[in-house]
Amino acid sequence: MSAPPRSASLRQAQWQPHVLALNPPPAYVPWLVEGGSLTARLKAHSDSFRVQCLHQRTAICLSDEAVAIGMHHRGRVWEREVLLRCDNTPVVFAHTVVPMSANANDWPLFSALGERSLGTTLFGDPLVRRGVLEFARLREGHPLALRARAALGENAPDAHILYARRCLYQRRQGTLLVTEVFLPSVLELITTSKNKR
Ligand SMILES: C=C(O[C@@H]1C=C(C(=O)O)C=C[C@H]1O)C(=O)O
């Protein structure tokens, strides 16, 4: 798979393997760089967890996604965007893309997910292979930072830098790229859940 054009990756976000230190490291680095299901982790740190599905439809993938999902140029994908809510507070904005070339055998549960967590269909499926976690600091103008802020409306955070991670999943002949944008409110979750202990 050829490397993405440097201009595209630099323009949108430099997705780095998580082994690089973050500076300044957000307090939720362990959540950012550790594997496992984010859904399970959020459920363990809150009394109630909900997936608010914002949309699931066809769209043109972002310029820094195409190569990651095996497409030679930006093209049409299935796009799902959600807010993960803990105790009704949105803590993660998630964006998932699947190339249109995928068929029902690749991701049989994806199209009918609704407000079920994608994670529940990925983790535990022996056919699913998970790639390396990458992370990026999203500049204010990154499409996913703009969409996360739009989803939050008047509650959008003031912070200009949002940390995100993404991971490529493969199943049969299909690929699926999950990007999770960590909202500042996730910090409160860690703090309060520490208090809960
Ligand atoms: C991949 C996972 O699924 C989570 C749920 C998502 C969804 O329902 O769209 C998207 C990203 C994840 O935060 C996970 O739980 O780790």
From TrEMBL:
It catalyses: chorismate = 4-hydroxybenzoate + pyruvate. Its main location: cytoplasm. The keyword Lyase applies. GO terms for biological process: pyruvate biosynthetic process; ubiquinone biosynthetic process. Pathway: Cofactor biosynthesis; ubiquinone biosynthesis. It is an enzyme of class 4 (lyase). This is Probable chorismate pyruvate-lyase.
